[in-house]
Amino acid sequence: MQGEIRLSFAASHPAFADHFPGRPIVPGVLLLDAAIHAIVQARDGTAGGSAIGQVSSAKFLSPVTPDESLTLSWRDTGQGQIRFDIAGSDRQVATGVLGWAPP
């Protein structure tokens, strides 16, 4: 399984009020949550089927600003894990490996 989608976080998102006032950036947890939801939905066609059981690694490499256009791509490693990458127009912003929960 592999896939790719576009992501953007609206400047009106409540997380920006405290992260950080005057210079808002997307919290890493929002990037990770978007990746998990998109991958699970792509696998099952809904957000309620499979579950991610483990975040094996997650690295946040570059800040993301409100309304910035991002591309989330992922691929199955063949070992029960999914590798994901999130990129902006000119740089990689996050990468990681997720593991499926046992049935």
TrEMBL record:
Pfam families in the record: ApeI-like
Coiled coil: none
Organism domain of life: Bacteria
Domain ApeI dehydratase-like: 4-96
Organism: Polaromonas eurypsychrophila
UniProt GO MF annotations: lyase activity
Protein name as catalogued: ApeI dehydratase-like domain-containing protein
InterPro entries recorded: ApeI-like (IPR054545), HotDog_dom_sf (IPR029069)
